[in-house]
Each structure stands twice: as structure tokens, then as C-alpha cells.
Design goal:
alpha+beta; flat
Length: 49
């Protein structure tokens, strides 16, 4: 296995939605599917930057 192939890849998600209920449902689903991922949230594009 090459050195670059042995490195772990961290997945990163940015979930942007102005509805808190959507964020509360999406983030746990992502955590279950991608337990090692970094997950960030924002309620609009301005706070996402």
C-alpha cells in the first residue's frame, strides 16, 4: 500500500438550512452514516462563510 493510500480521509459536511428542525434531523442522520466526519451547520450563507 502506498503512503498516500494509507492516510485516513476525513469527510467534512456543511449543512445549511434556515429551519432548525431540518438541521436537527439531518445532522444525526449524517453522524450515524459517517461517524468520523466533521459536521458543521449554519442557518444561512452569511454564517456559513
Amino acid at each position: 500500500m502506498s503512503h498516500s493510500a494509507s492516510k485516513a480521509i476525513t469527510q467534512t459536511f456543511l449543512v445549511v438550512d434556515d429551519h432548525e428542525a431540518i438541521l436537527e434531523g439531518t445532522v444525526p442522520a449524517l453522524k450515524r452514516t459517517y461517524p468520523t466526519a466533521e459536521i458543521f451547520t449554519a442557518q444561512d450563507i452569511q454564517t456559513a462563510q
